[in-house]
DNA sequence: ATGATTTATCGTAATATTACGATGTTAAAT
DNA sequence: ATTTAACATCGTAATATTACGATAAATCAT
């Protein structure tokens, strides 16, 4: 028990759920908003900005990178993170495809 | 440790993360798609359709209800579930507001 | 070379999630 | 009044997530 039964769902359902899961944490939302707001690729500032430990921020960045929504570029001794515009748009498009499935017919309620 | 530090984030960030979290499970995606696909408010069928235990489905339905995206109406001895059109649209709008923040300027990457 | 800075990774404690059997609860059917 | 059907809830085992200190790795400054 306790293990999500991915094998009984479609690839699409698993993929969409995974995208939602990566975004399902306020720190990761905050990280994305901060990167966007700075119009630049900040990195260590996030630790000071958010008040979470460096290890924690690094872990969140790793998860965001795992779906490609951000990219990290090494610049000297620091790493510059930025949004991957294409992935960002693709995720938005996928969410909208899901939400546009909606039909206006309800047999009850 | 292990507890999300909600107090250090904005209400908006916490709310958005919560919405993503509720949708971050393939069973809940599948439930929503099934309800939409049937253009009706099914209930116990989900147990047979998805192959998860009745208690498990009931728990997922409870979570979906918690953000109002579905509604349950008692009809005799069964409960008919359907999408709440307004909440559905509101969530889609909130996601799009988030995704439309994107700026095209990247100082690195 | 040494020390400082920045980030990643490891290990782990605290907490949350997922799944399900067992057990209630309610309403229709007999 | 029983029985049956459909759900919800409780309790709990298995697993996942979150957070952080400690430590490693890489690079810059001295």
UniProtKB/TrEMBL annotation, chains A, B:
InterPro entries named in the record: ArsR-like_HTH (IPR011991), HTH_ArsR_DNA-bd_dom (IPR001845), HTH_MetalResp_TranReg (IPR051081), WH-like_DNA-bd_sf (IPR036388), WH_DNA-bd_sf (IPR036390)
The UniProt entry, under SUPFAM superfamilies, shows: Winged helix' DNA-binding domain (SSF46785)
Q: Domain of life of the organism in this record?
A: Bacteria
Question: What are the record keywords, sorted?
Answer: DNA-binding, Transcription, Transcription regulation
**Is Signal given among the entry's keywords?**
no
Any idea where the HTH arsR-type domain is?
8-102
Please list the GO terms describing molecular function. Answer: DNA binding; DNA-binding transcription factor activity
Question: Which protein, by its recorded name, is this?
Answer: DNA-binding transcriptional regulator, ArsR family
What's the source species for this entry? Sphingobacterium wenxiniae
């Amino acid at each position: 028990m306790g293990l999500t039964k991915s094998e009984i769902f479609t690839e699409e359902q698993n993929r969409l759920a995974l995208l939602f899961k990566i975004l399902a944490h306020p720190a990761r939302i905050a990280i994305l908003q901060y990167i966007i707001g700075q119009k630049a690729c900040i990195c260590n500032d996030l630790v000071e900005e958010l008040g979470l430990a460096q290890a924690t921020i690094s872990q969140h960045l790793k998860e965001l990178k795992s779906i490609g929504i951000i990219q990290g570029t090494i610049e000297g001794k620091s790493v510059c993170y930025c949004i991957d515009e294409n992935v960002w748009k693709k995720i938005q498009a996928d969410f909208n495809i899901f939400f546009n499935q909606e039909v206006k017919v309800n047999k009850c309620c």
